[in-house]
Amino acid sequence: MIAFNAKYQGVLTLIARLGLGGVLIAAGGLKAFVPAKAASAVAAYKILPTKIAHLVGYGLPWFEIAIGALLIIGLSIRMASVVSGLLMLVFIASIASVWARGLLIDCGCFGGGGAVDPAKSALVHRTYFIEIMRDLALALSALYLYFFPYGLFSLEKSATQNKES
Amino acid sequence: MSKQAKATKGGDNFTRWLVISMVALVVITGVVFSMMSSSTKANQSFSALKGFTLGAPVSATLDTAVGSGLVLNPGAPVRIDLWEDPQCPVCNLFEQSIGGYLDGLVRTKKATVVYHVLSFLGADSIRAANAMMCASDQGHYLDFHKSVYLVQPSLENSGFYSNANLIKIGDSIGLKDKSFIDCITKGSKLNLVKTHEDSMPSYKVTGTPTVFINNRLWQRKASGFDLGEFRLAVAAG
């Protein structure tokens, strides 16, 4: 396992960066230009006070795009990985909270969002599970990037520098 | 950390702060852009009321037996109860496809329509419901109801249904009476709004829009609201 990682770490880091960064940019890009939808989606979680939820809805897509861009071009990867890992944990906690409170919403992760027809509750619960698993996988990619931030095609540093830091 | 990492720390710090400020700049620009586009959109929505003409006044009574609903044209052979929240987007879809038909049923005295104005979506709903009931006192529930949906913002509880904007809606359609404006600013109907809201569980209303035709729940078969389907249901009674 360790030998495998040592051999392919540069490629694995690149894959983690492109995967995590790509998902963040896609998620942000789909929401950034429909601010009213994004703000409603955050408010639908009923965690934050409405006004603050709307602000988060306006800002979050741009934050995701910015962090995703850092990961893809390979700048400040370690910081970006910590931030995106924490972001994924927040997403997991939010979905779990919605699930526990019995709310039926579309997570609005990639646009959309808001309440869902109560008739579809079984489907929604399965979707919550899948979303949590997906965010967990992304959080693990972020964790990997924290330990091995330097890989192929990164603006920052070369692959050999992981061993030294 | 290795010696090499330490040696480059100063440079890294500079990059780090540069990156942090760039991210902050992107987010702040995004938030400002979003807030501006949302408020422009909300203000533009008033243009939907251009050329709106008030219909003939229709007086409303309260049905104290059924949640103090606003009864328009009592005594007709068919009774339709509509439970709605002014902020609910699905109620807006209902209004767009079936609202005009209900309006016609009242005005041509073919049916009694009872409106239950709910407000569970939040503070904006409560203010809008209050204003709708104020309009009802002026005999213009139908007109005001229609115009509230015409300007309905896609973002709930954004503060768009402020008393000032509700007065502006009234003003745009020709409701300029001082008693109407006072009723909105004083919140004169807030108790009635609460009575409507609190009556939901007694009639097993859990969402909006909910429609009863002659006290029987209307369950639509089409995925959207189909006027043809609704007409048949009303005709069947």
Summarize this entry quickly.
The complex is a heterodimer of chains A (165) and B (237). Chain A is an all-alpha fold and 165 residues long. Chain A is built from 5 helices and 2 strands.
Number of helices of chain B: 9
Which structural category do the helix and sheet elements of chain B fall into?
alpha+beta
Number of strands of chain B: 6
Look at the structure and give the mean pLDDT of chain B: 91
- Report how far the terminal alpha carbons of chain A are from each other: 20 Å
Overview of the molecule:
The complex is a heterodimer of chains A (165) and B (237). Chain A has helices at 2-32, 35-43, 50-73, 77-100, 121-147; strands at residues 105-106, 114-115. Chain A is mostly helical and 165 residues long. In chain A, helix 3 packs antiparallel against helix 4 (77-100). The mean pLDDT of chain A is 91. Chain B is α+β, with helices and mostly antiparallel strands and 237 residues long. Chain B contains nine helices and six strands, in the order ααβββαβαααααββα. Chain B has helices spanning 3-7, 9-44, 89-107, 123-137, 141-150, 163-173, 178-186, 190-198, 227-236; strands spanning 60-63, 69-72, 78-84, 111-117, 210-213, 216-217. In chain B, helix 4 (123-137) packs parallel to helix 6, helix 4 (123-137) runs antiparallel to helix 7 (178-186) and helix 6 packs antiparallel against helix 7.
SSE order and pairing:
The complex is a heterodimer of chains A (165) and B (237).
Chain A: H1 2-32, H2 35-43, H3 50-73, H4 77-100, E1 105-106, E2 114-115, H5 121-147
Antiparallel strand pairs in A: 1-2
Chain B: H1 3-7, H2 9-44, E1 60-63, E2 69-72, E3 78-84, H3 89-107, E4 111-117, H4 123-137, H5 141-150, H6 163-173, H7 178-186, H8 190-198, E5 210-213, E6 216-217, H9 227-236
Parallel strand pairs in B: 3-4
Antiparallel strand pairs in B: 1-2, 2-4, 3-5, 5-6
